[in-house]
Amino acid sequence: VSMTQSPVTLSVSPGERVTLSCRASESVSYNLAWYQQHPGRAPRLLIYAASTRATGVPARFSGSGSGSEYSLTISNLQSEDFAVYYCQQYNRWPPITFGQGTRLDIK
Amino acid sequence: EVHLGESGGGVIQPGGSLRLSCAASGFSFSDHDMHWVRQATGKSLEWVAVIGSTGNTFFADSVKGRFTVSRDNGDNTLYLQMNNLRPEDTALYFCVRGPAAGLNLGDLFLDSWGQGTLVTVSS
Fold this sequence. Notes:
Oligomer: heterodimer
Strand content of chain B: over 45%
Number of helices of chain A: 0
Shape of chain A: globular
């Protein structure tokens, strides 16, 4: 299953709200996760099952979508939110597959 | 607190072999699926392999037949044996925990990550 994220790069200001998109080449039936990765660090699980926040993830992160279209919304952007975000499907495997990432930059 | 510590990376010539290890602590290791995921510099994440809590294994096509994954539940350690290495295997290799019995439940998200060990395949 091929995963396509858009946009590739997004420049936003702290305090704003942003929505990142992820499109699968077929329906992944809510078996979709989102990860955050800061430079030089390991990825961190944010969302699984399309909309369930992982333990310790702030409420400003929310996931939505269905079928082959999913999104990650971050409200009230904080400085620590500027990172690369990846989506991952685990509906049809192996292999589990990741998108190419969206980089969130400070404007 | 969950801790995953990878080791065993290094520089190896094409065609060579390397074994990565991952020491796990802070959770019931034997209950969880364990994955290897790799990331070439500046690139996205690529899933490599998984070993389930019952020992079943699955691999990405790019490594099938060359890599094997195993676990020692008594020692809380995960292994990745990499043979016939190619330049395109060059990457940071992450040891990653999946949910308990995730393979059985169809839950293959990745909930805790190590910091990675770097493998460079070059002559």
